[in-house]
Every structure is written in structure tokens, then in C-alpha cells.
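User: What would this chain look like folded?
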Amino acid sequence: MSIQRVKEYFRGMGMEDRVLEFDVSSATVELAAQALHCEPCRIAKTLSFLADGRAILIVAAGDAKVDNPKYKAQFGQCH
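Assistant: Here's the prediction, encoded as C-alpha cells.
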């Protein structure tokens, strides 16, 4: 989905000002934290996994790591 389509969608809900664009890259947690002048733990990242043909999305703090035993206990397999 293009940034313009996201802005248009948000505009319909009065939320278009929530889209932030930067002159520098924000492609990683570290770069996003630099662009926003904050700590990496304040960045939300989305991790995506495919398990048994299903997409799993996990939103976590930017400095969080996936705990393999907890993931396996929850989803029945390793990622």
C-alpha cells in the first residue's frame, strides 16, 4: 500500500496527521529511533511469521527479541 493511499484512508477518519515521513531512513529500529530522537525501546516493530500456512504478526518494543521457547509454547513450533 502506498503512503498516499494510507494518508487517504486515514484522512477519512481524521487521522492523516499520524503519518510521519522523514528525510532520513527509518528502515530499522535504530534508524527510526535516531529520526525520532528517542530510545529504540520506544519504537514499535512488527515481526511476521508463517506458521502452518497462517500469518502471525507480533508487535513488540524495538529492543525486544523473540524468546524461542515462549514462541514454541504459544504457537507449537519454532520460527
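The longest helix spans residues 3-11. If you want, I can go into more detail on any region.
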